[in-house]
Amino acid sequence: MKGLIFDIQRSSFVDGDGVRTTVFFKGCNLKCKWCHNPEGIKNYKEMLFYKSKCTGCGLCRKICQNNEKECTLCGNCALICPNDAKEICGKEYNTGELFEIIQRDKALYSQTGGGVTFSGGECMLQIDFLRSILEKCYENGINTAVDTAGNVPFSYFEKILPYVNTFLYDVKCIDEELHKEHTGVSNTLILENLERLIKAGKRIVVRTPVIGGFNDTDKELFRIFNYLKGKGIEKAELLPYHNMGAHKYEGLSLPFKEFAAPSKDFMEKYKKVFSTV
Fold first, then answer.
1. Same domain, yes or no, for 185 and 105?
2. In this predicted model, what pLDDT tens digit does every residue of 173-200 receive, in sequence order?
3. At 48, is the secondary structure helix, strand, or coil?
4. pLDDT, tens digit, for every residue of 213-268?
5. One-character DSSP codes across 212-257
6. Residue 234 contacts residue 201 (beta carbons within 8 Å)
7. DSSP assignment of 67-127, as one string?
8. What is the tens place of the pLDDT at every residue in 101-152?
9. Do 55 and 79 form a contact (C-beta atoms < 8 A)?
10. By residue range, what is the domain housing residue 59?
11. 159 - beta bridge partners?
12. 41/87 Cα distance (integer angstroms)
């Protein structure tokens, strides 16, 4: 069983409880306009080229096996580039290879109440590989979390329910038309799956990105709050927008749209509100 991964971050503190290893699966079926991991959207390997870093030294041309006629994503040019102007995004791992990396920090997980988080992209689009690595981690006593936007058939959730300790579940907004406009998809299935996941008795942490010009209004944030309140989720987290992924758009030759970050006071106000969910 193999899966396509675009990043593995060890010693993360932002993707669940304790110290965690976060594994980013490649491929997503949402098109969020503010996405800070655009390299995770396509479900195949890609070459990122940062024109601003390129000095025109020509080493990549000299080493190219195909004389630049058709890129096979062999990665030789990325390896030889002295300025890191090229990068291959996406690497295949089998279950054993990925688990070997995850288990390196098992002692640290135990000490901090941490574990491994599978994210993306959308990790659940590679459901069979996800199940295989979740099962391996669960059998070896490693705490597991799945970070998902929930836009998949509920049968996918059923495949992994026994092996997941926590779901980190995105609820971006309640207004369906607003959701369609900014993510490209309806949120009907997403909210239906959340309801079913709650009924299944799983530990759920809802996470909402707060994006200027999208959902940073009293009306929409209170709609989210009122929807979640009393439903039995573990907690609701608000994540302020940031533009730290802006440079990746250059690498992919994509236009970058800047959104406004909410103020610190605004975030503190609503974090207090959402703490009562």
1. yes
2. 999 999 999 999 999 999 999 999 999 9
3. strand
4. 999 999 999 999 999 999 999 999 999 999 999 999 999 999 999 999 999 999 99
5. TTTT-SHHHHHHHHHHHTTS--SEEEEEE---TTHHHHHHTT----
6. no
7. TTSS-----HHHHH-TT--EEEE-EEEEHHHHHHHHGGGHHHHHHHT-EEEEESS-GGGGH
8. 999 999 999 999 999 999 999 999 999 999 999 999 999 999 999 999 999 9
9. no
10. 47-88
11. none
12. 16
66-102: pLDDT as tens digits: 776 788 999 999 999 999 999 999 999 999 999 999 9
Single residue among 88, 109, 144 that ends a domain in this structure: 88
Long-range contacts of 70-77 (CB under 8 A, 24+ apart): 71/47, 73/45, 73/46, 73/47
CA–CA separation, 118 and 165 (whole Å) = 12
Helices 95-102 and 127-139: angle between axes, nearest 10 degrees: 50
CA distance 89 to 95: 19
Q: What is the CATH number of the domain that holds 71?
A: 3.30.70
- Pick the closest to residue 231 from 268, 206, 267 (CA basis): 206
CB 262 within 8 A of CB 240: yes
Phi and psi dihedrals of 104, rounded to 5?
Answer: -60, -30
Does 66 lie in the same domain as 18? no
Phi, psi of 205 (to 5 degrees): -115, 115
